[in-house]
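ok trying again, last paste got cut off:
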Amino acid sequence: MPWLAVANRYTAAVLNTELIPATEASSGCLMVVLHGLGDSMEGFRWLPHALDNSRLNLLLVNAPDDYLTGFSWYDIAAPAAGVERSRDLLFGLLDRQRADGFATEQTFLFGFSQGCLMTLEIGLRYPHRLAGLVGISGYAHEPGNLVAEQSPVAAEQSFLITHGTADPLLPLAQTQAQMEQLKAGGIRMQWEVFEKAHTIQGEAELEVVRKFVGDRMPAS
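nice, full thing came through this time. structure:
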């Protein structure tokens, strides 16, 4: 039973994480950071400084599969099983954060590329409302199914999705059409386009992210 063997291998996978505490020690706000293909948590150690938010704890996460010098959330040639496996692992991770004192409604997701796809998966399928979801330079896996199978709280989630005009890996028109499909399905989304390739554009894009996060954090 090869499918069962694959399913068991996925279930046994473990997500390695590292918490970077907020400088305000009593803060209960959390951002879970999901990297892209071939990257790791090491690629986002700059993010706490760039976000410049003393109340935000950041949880850096490594995807479960080895890929070159980093990790992968799913097989890009046959993504379905890996997306489902990683989604279940992230559900469990979020459940553990809630048990550890980080309320889901004060928890953000931030994902780049493959991490953006997983952010969309979590936002539309997780049964609890999050503070906000940020997806950068990514795309959706089977957006029609995402709309049809969305959780009862999906329409209450707040998304910021950004993309580049010159992305050589994920053409803007393709991702934009997917995001329009999600919005037509009732998903609340702020869609922003920047003059960039497959990357984070810099200060202009970071400022949009900072505002999105700051506007959704509880009053101090």
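cool. Strands lie at 17-20, 29-34, 56-61, 65-67, 70-72, 107-112, 132-136, 158-164, 188-194. The first strand starts at residue 17 and ends at 20.
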